[in-house]
Amino acid sequence: MTMHDRTFDVIGVGFGPSNLALAIALDEAARRERPGLAFHFVEKQPHFTWHGGMLLPDSDMQISFLKDLVSLRDPTSPFTFVNYLHEKGRLTAFINRKTFFPSRVEFNDYLRWAASCFAERCSYGEEVVALEPAAERDGTVTAFAVRSRAADGTERLRRARNVVIAAGGAPQLPECFAPFAGDTRIMHSSRYLDRIAGLGLTDAPTTRIAVVGGGQSAAEIFCDLAGRFGRAAIDLLVRGRALKPADDSPFVNEIFDPEGTGTFFGQPPAARHAFLDEFRNTNYAVVDHDLIQRIYDMLYEQRVADGSRLALSSGRAVVAAATDRDGITLTLADSRGGAAEERRYDAVVLATGYRRGLDRRLLAPLAPYLADATVDRDYRLPMAEACEAGLFMQGQSETTHGLSDTLLSVVAVRSREIATAIVERLPPPPLPAEQFMRPVRLAASS
Predict the structure, then answer these.
(1) Distance (Å, rounded) from C-alpha 222 to C-alpha 130?
(2) Which end of the chain is more exposed for a tag (fewer CB within 10 A), N or C?
(3) Strands (E), 262-421
(4) Are residues 131 and 149 in the same domain?
């Protein structure tokens, strides 16, 4: 066990876009408001990567580059996407493309470029396994111990007055696939590029691959597989009756404005729930219109050529799965009332989304100090009076902060809100030694 004697003002768990934006906001605070602010991040990946398993060569962002790490808060910051393009010598060329939507590969490169500025403030290759009470004053917890484990089993312990958890979502797998979590032939979309090339699948008509899901990731993977394996049979299994387009019209897009977070938070729970239901088609189980058109064209051209290797199977829900040495058998129920059927595949990709929420295992040692599981407006978890250390959450609060909470739309503004909340609650910094030795000047007597 390696113990770090220093107590940090902030430790971030995870170093994806949310905590990267926070690193920038904390750096700004250290320069402008709180000199000496000490912060560090712990990331389980060996290096910075944003959705590495889905960095498909033909995939573009679904969000404007202006919703980068800082622009909505400070467009003059050196960490804007525009400055990244300038530093890379591509600004003019990007302008000539006449688009607000860079490729996902390029945006990942932008994030890595920004993350490289904080290389000394992030410990990669370490997974945080527990948060524990660490320091006390008069019976009150003043800091947390952040326990992490490296790939070689080495454990490290760091102390922090505030912890910000931004670990992202965990892959959500349909229940029938739970027994096969170790089978590399069955993969979640988050591991798609990591796994698909290593399976040794042959590009032959006898090869069959299923993609399960009706959202953007499922559609993108279906198209990638169609090009990657030019002769294999690819099925897109969709529970609904059709692929549904995402609503990205201007008025609807206003719900993702950072200013809307406070309005949403101020609504009663029933109104929040109704809002999330009404606008679910902006973010869940929907596909960009141009990608829907592309898939339709692919299937139409296949009909012209009397082909059948690509199929969109709508109204099909996977209700059972079984594996053997030679493949995977899926049982598909027909939502329109038809008979269930079984289909055999060599590989299955589950584009079935993510689950989010508090990691109870991680926070178990802090259970006596957690007053509530719902974060406040400033993203801080309410703590008992016996704990003054701060615990903040990023990207886990859709039900209280709105649909934008899990997206890039608010990271620039949210990071500053969290940084401000942290700085305002920190104890005053110690005065430099010379200030204690400076002679007191008395006013001249009249």
Answers:
(1) 38
(2) C
(3) 310-314, 316-324, 327-334, 341-345, 347-350, 354-355, 390-393
(4) yes
Are 313 and 412 part of one and the same domain? no
Together in a domain, 290 and 327: yes
Q: Are 53 and 192 in contact (CB under 8 A)?
A: yes
How far apart (Å, rounded) are the C-alpha atoms in residues 404 and 255?
8
Strands 316-324 and 327-334: antiparallel
Give the position of tokens 């979309």. 189
Distance of CA 349 to the CA centre of its chain: 20
Same domain, yes or no, for 158 and 90? yes
CA distance 154 to 250: 50
As beta bridge partners, residue 150 has: 126
- Best CA proximity match to 162, nearest among 132, 138, 142, 140: 142
pLDDT of residue 251: 93
Question: In the structure encoding, which two tokens stand for residue 321, read together?
Answer: 């799965």
Task: Give the residue numbers spanning the domain of 111.
Answer: 2-169+356-433
Q: Read off the pLDDT of residues 2-49 as tens digits, 9 standing for 90 and up.
A: 766 689 999 999 999 999 999 999 999 999 999 999 999 999 999 999
In this structure, the number of other CB atoms found within 10 A of the CB of residue 303 comes to 9
* Gap between the Cα atoms of 203 and 386, Å rounded: 62
Residue 81, domain member (yes or no): yes
**Which backbone phi and psi does 258 adopt, to 5 degrees?**
-55, -30
DSSP state of 323: E
Give every CB contact of residue 118 below 8 A, 6+ residues apart in sequence: 20, 23, 27, 41
Within 10 Å of residue 76's Cβ, how many Cβ atoms?
8
